[in-house]
User: Fold this.
Amino acid sequence: MEVANSNPNLIDLDAKTDTASKRTFQGPVVDVERVSLEFTKEKDQMIVLEDVSMAASQNEFVSITGPSGCGKSSLLRIIAGLHKATSGTVKFKGTAITQPRSEIAMIFQNFVLLPWRTAMDNVMFALSAKRELSEDQKRERATQMLDHVGLKGFENVFPGELSGGMKQRVGIARALALEPEALLMDEPFSSLDALTADLLRKEVYSLLINPSSSIQAVIMVSHNVEEVVELSDKVVVLSQRPAHVVGEMNITLPRPRDRKSPEFYAWMDKIYSLLA
Amino acid sequence: MTVKTGPSTETKKANVVLTMPANVRAGQIIGLVEVTGGLGSPIDISRLADEFGGDIARLLPVLDTGEMLKLVKIEGGDVGLTDFGLKFQRTSKHKVRLLKDQLANIEPFKTAIELVAKQGSVSAAEVADALIRKKLRWHHEYEVNQAVVNSLLIHWAIYAGLLNYKSERFQKFD
Amino acid sequence: MTSFSLFEIFLDLAYSWTRMFIALLLSILFSLTVGILAARNKRAEAVIVPLLDVFQSIPILGFFPIVILGVIAIIPSQVGVDLAVILLIFTSLAWNITFGVYEAVKSIPHDYIELSLMPDVGSWRRITALYIPASISRIAYNTETSWAVGLFYLISSEILTLGRSSYTVTHGIGVAIITFASANDWTGYTYAIIALLTAVVIWQFVFLREFALWSERYKFVEEPRAVRQDPLMRFYSWMTHKSISKLFLYTHSRGVTKFSSTFYRFKDGIKYSIVILLTIFIAFELGASWNLNIGFPTPIPSIGSIFSTEKNIIVALAYSFVRIWYVYFLCVMVGVPVGIGVSLNSKLYDGLTPVIETIASVPAPALLPAIALVTHQGEQVAAIIIFLGMIWYIIFNVMAGIRSLPAELFELNSVFHISRLHAWLDVYLPAAATAFVSGSIVAIGAAWNTLIVAEFFIVSGSTPITQVQTGIGKTIALATNQGDLLSLTLAVLSMTALIVTFNLVVWRRVYHYTTKRYAYNR
Assistant:
């Protein structure tokens, strides 16, 4: 798969700010401070998240894991600005997140592509709000993104005609179209078969660590402990509802990580023991 | 009507028709080469199956296709990479493009390319119809067969850079 | 001047509900017999399924005049008329419930079937211990969802019998409503309508819900991820799916759209189905002609008279066709935005849906007199009645379509800061497309049925309460009143032919294209 490199033809979306200045903020890219989420449903008070704190720093790949239904996806949506926390704050580079912002992009488990639009249109969908770009510029940008994720030639194909892995790549292309600084991924590989997921994991990772990539932090939600250990720098483990942080660890394995090595298994065991 | 569910690779026969199975995808082939290479080829088939989640039934068509594409060779229960397979593994950019020449000889791509050369553009339905006339189809139901051909063309031909896709028709790759 | 008493109204309700209940029982018996047979016997299946399918797609109400005449020929009395009404209600419930039984028995897990085929298990035992319990859940569910349709036919048929000179239904809520209206007793009329509404609501909670809940215990397999919609929503989306004639249905799974027409799948049984249909039709025709003292057996009308009658009928059909379609466009202009708008807003949805459901449960024909009072223009009355008959199908289906989409699709709009306009154009409208098309197909089908009452309505005497200049509904009504069997038969057959052809030629393609392009599959 293509790895993005400095391409003179790459349209500079934000001519005013340069990449350097984007990285000058000192604190964590995403900072979650004592977030709680409650809601009442038919007289039942449900506490989903309880006093959750975590942070994703510069160049850090953070995974959030926990038993299913524990609220990891809700937490991710709070970070994305889609839900409001009942208490606590989430900050992006020091500014509170109250609604979705273009610096924070998201990839979904079920891809969530518009089936009535081509792959290109789906990527361009992300650029809808960018009024300063012309249609041609948007089209060119979308074509480039699709090329970066290895889908050159598929611009006019509809999602229904794509395989699962390809669909997720369109999702990735769409997420990256705005050159986001933080990337949120909600179980991005769990709808794919083992082989495709494996390939895509490697490709996504290489896409992210590429120096010209705009992404400074990644937060991934996953229940797949193996993939968590394979990809993450830091792992945050949540408990059952009401979910609170039961553990946090920095995985120090050198990359590339060997899934069969005893050290790898040791890390997986650590996480499993926290999940139990 | 011959219903082909797997490639026929008896190279001893002269007029053999190579066909792509309906449900093998490029990702699986890439995975096959990765795993075989990574584990140090040649590798025992059952060992390979373990890596693929133990599902031998799904592995076999992938193996057959890998052979057809000349990426792997199977000898005495072991799977090993060919030189081409090694090259494939080592390539990072546009891997699937390497398979262009192999795919051009496999149906439905072969017929599709011929039709594009003749008439400029072709639809999946036209390719499917042409192949039915050559007594080749992937499914007994007409519409499902057409969908399979469409699927294969989109997935492989575009991916390998054999054809372009616009307004639901396939054209020359530019 | 009819003075009314609450007791009388209650009595009318009781009569009507009894008719419904008898029709329901008959439907259940029919469905068990025919459904189980079709599910377990391949040859029966090949005949029965297409047959039921055709029944589902023809405008039943159009045939009602012939049916009444035919039935009364055999049983000439009050009972005959009541039977005719019950028969009509039966036709609105039976096919759906039968398909439910058929599908339920077909999906019994194979091990159970094998167990039941052991030598010491007799057929009767098999039926009572396996097939019937397996079908109960579907019967209950289908009953709950088709009840409103049955009501429509109840009211309409009670009303239609009133137009006849002899043998009318004596007691019934439809009768009450119209009698009050034609006597200008608007208080009585209002009370009757309210009584009907109340009965519907109470019935829903007391019987239908309980029935459906009780039957849950007979389920074999947990239904996968039931979409939590309220009953009427499920009704409208279910009803649509079931009502779309399988004559031209496309199934769409795993990227493949397959033409799964019953004609295509049951090629062998078609000829038998056609024979059965023709036999039934001819039987009623004979009965009707006997009734009208035309002669028995009927003298064959001359080609000339057929042609001249048919010419007028075609003109009438054209008028009705245009009428239905311009009202349809009005429905779309109103229904789609309302449907989408209400679904997007949770508060609106929770608040308005019960209100809409209640209003929708009053069959449009019951409101006819009130509307005719407000505007004396026949065209307008017809348009309003047709509109009311169609609008709910559009609204509820669009709502069901939107509500069944995953939340993430809407989250996309927030994430990418999509403007309101673009959200509607790029996401909401396309997302509602398939549901909208399904709803439209049923709505248009319902419109044809409503024509019979909407275009010409007479209670007694020579002045109709409302009428349009030209229309097939009027043609049918007039032909019934004048005993003109030739016109009546030709009119009904022509209308049916038009509807079926339109379904096959137009709707099929539209449905196919829409599901292929716009369906959101996970």
Chain B touches chain A at residues 25, 27-28, 30-31, 34, 52-53, 92-95, 150-151, 154-155, 158-159, 161, 163-168, 173 (CB under 8 Å). Confidence is low (pLDDT under 50) at residues 8-13 of chain B. Chain B has two domains: 18-93, 107-172. Chain B is about 50% helix and 15% strand.
